[in-house]
Amino acid sequence: MRKSLDAVARKAAGLMELDPSHYQIAVQQHSRRRRSPAEVRMRRVDAARRADMDNLVVSQESRDNASQTAPPPKRCCSSAGRT
Prior knowledge:
Oligomer: single chain
Largest sheet: none
Shape: flat
């Protein structure tokens, strides 16, 4: 006879206890890592500059040529069984 999930959960309830100290430590670390508005702005500018780096390094013509000559990506999974 199958036991209900609730009965199994009640029986196992005393086997494990969650330690709240890990959560408390994570909250404390997060509060220490708050960034100033100036640092947030600096990180956004850096991210935008890095995103534009490929435009400075690789010409538009090279990107166009690569996209036209590159083979199509291979599918990693079989489409068998799909409708």
